[in-house]
Predict the structure of Cobalt/nickel transport system permease protein.
Amino acid sequence: MTGLAVDDAAWSSAWRRRSPGDKLLLCGGLVGCALVLPAWPGSVLVGLVAVGLALGPARVPARTFGRAVRLPLAFVTVGALTAVVSVSGDGLGWAPDAASRAASLLGHSVAGGAAVLLLATTTPMSDLLPALRRLRVPAAVVEVASVVYRLLFVLLQSLRTIREAQTARMGHSSLRRSYRSTGVLAAAVLTRSWDRARRMQEGLAGRGMETGLRVLPEVLPSSRAFLATSVTGLAGIVAASVLVP
């Protein structure tokens, strides 16, 4: 277990051996449909397809998928509430089309987020980063994403170690001590992560690492059946959104 539930789900997913390019096509198409098509029925169909594929063929644990989607859902809900407020000379009030605007914002956001989570819970970063290089994403962007991904595990390990030490010293035995320990924990983790990043940069510079770190990626074959099914499903979502009033 890596410490990241989404990453663990990606490594154990039934779609782990599928080509990342195939999954990028499917999930990218779903995100595009969620953004372009109307909320009804387009976003609803995209959300249902993304969740159904994740929990069905991909075999992502429902608890993991639900925990991953709850914080973005809360963020989107707060954003939808603030987007429908109207400010006028009489003060604050609801916009005339508040209900439809909130529903549209929620529909597009939740559907797009579910499609992104489908990719995240079925494709490890070690597969996704080489695929981004092959798609000619700027090397600097890929390298920054790779470094940030690796530092996440350093942060998690530091967080876990310091938290255990504080608990052993009764640092969370009362509310007042919990507040103090949480502040110390945040400061220590940020300090350690900054120091680790600095030492990593100095080590790479000392070894003459002026270009990206090249590794031999695992080549996963593309599936024509999967691609054909993905394109057909996306076309079906588009057709249903156009035909249904």
